Amino acid sequence: MENRYASHPNEVKTFDTTRLREEFLIETLFAPDRLVTVYSHVDRYIVGSAVPVSGEIKLEADFKQIGADYFLERREVGIINVGGEGSVTADGETFEVGKNECLYIGLGVKDVTFRSADSGSPAKFYLVSTPAHQAYPTRKAGQGEAIQAHLGSIDSSNERTINKYILPGGIESCQLVMGITELEPGNMWNTMPCHTHNRRSEVYLYFNMPEDAAVFHLMGEPEETRHLVVRNEQAVISPSWSIHSGVGTNNYTFCWAMGGENQLFDDMDAVNMKDLK
Question: By CB atoms within 10 Å of each CB, which of 10, 157, 182, 241 scores lowest?
């Protein structure tokens, strides 16, 4: 399990491109027949993936690092499949999880395994886990079951559909909030005008991008921004003090996940466009 530490915004102002990428960008996330995990000290996220090709993959961790006997002893996890058809088994119960579908597994579930339906087109399970203090039932939601919001317009290049899966009123959880935003063709901007939310941090996974495409992910304090060039199936850890917005060379999809003090999707501190620097 890779370890990432939290950074103070004053320190981040001194980072060059290489250091910014080392601290906030997860470049290699999906690997065949491997469980990939990154432990972040920002709200104690574990961000990871499972791509089962030749057999099943078990959800395990560096138990010394998380101080637990099994992965979900004191955690919950949200899982979104961004690849081919697959299934997840949680304590003996199997859930078929197709592309862009979401599965939530709560605190106390001991055995979790991942499997692909077709090794030629394997599932790509994206995982975000946060600490939990209460158990909620394991639940799956297809894309048609998400709470949807259609925002933006082609005039501002940000027409998009937000699919909210894990949040109050959807799949109940202890603190994790998770969903997918899809940009319409011809639209490149997400979340602009931007915002911060000092009470929660966030993780972005960008996907459904051509190999030669890129997203310029904006981060940093509003008055002193930085950027990361992000490729397909790479993730960004966004601290609570940082904006998190991006523009791509073409439309794309991204998965957002939040953890922190509350679960209110609309709890954000808007940044006036005139204040961006």
Answer: 10
Residues in the chain: 277
What DSSP designation does 232 have? T
- Rg (the chain; Cα; Å): 18
Task: Supply 161's token pair.
Answer: 């559909």
**Cα dihedral: 95, 235, 272, 153 (round 10):** -60
pTM greater than the 0.90 cutoff: yes
Adjacency order of strands within the sheet including 25-26: 25-26, 234-238, 200-207, 253-260, 177-183, 160-166, 147-151
What is the per-residue pLDDT across 34-74, written as a single tens digit (0 to 9) for each? 999 999 999 999 999 999 999 999 999 777 789 999 999 99
Where do we find the tokens 């399970």? Answer: 125
CA nearest neighbour of 256 among 160, 169, 187: 160
Helix (H, G, I), strand (E, B) or coil at 143: helix
Quick one: pLDDT band at residue 246, thresholds 50, 70, 90?
very high
What is the spatial distance between Cα 57 and Cα 234, in angstroms, rounded to a whole number? 21
Judging by DSSP bridges, how do beta strands 75-81 and 200-207 pair with one another?
A: unpaired
Taking the mean position of all CA atoms in its chain, how far away is CA 89? Answer: 21
Is 110 within 8 Å of 72 (Cβ atoms)? yes
d(C-alpha 157, C-alpha 23), whole Å: 30
Could you tell me which of 250, 258, 146 has the C-alpha nearest to residue 189? 250
Q: Which residues pair with 8 in a beta bridge?
A: none
With a pLDDT cut of 90, the percent of the chain lying above it is: 92
What is the Cβ-side half-sphere exposure of residue 96, based on CA atoms within 13 angstroms? 4
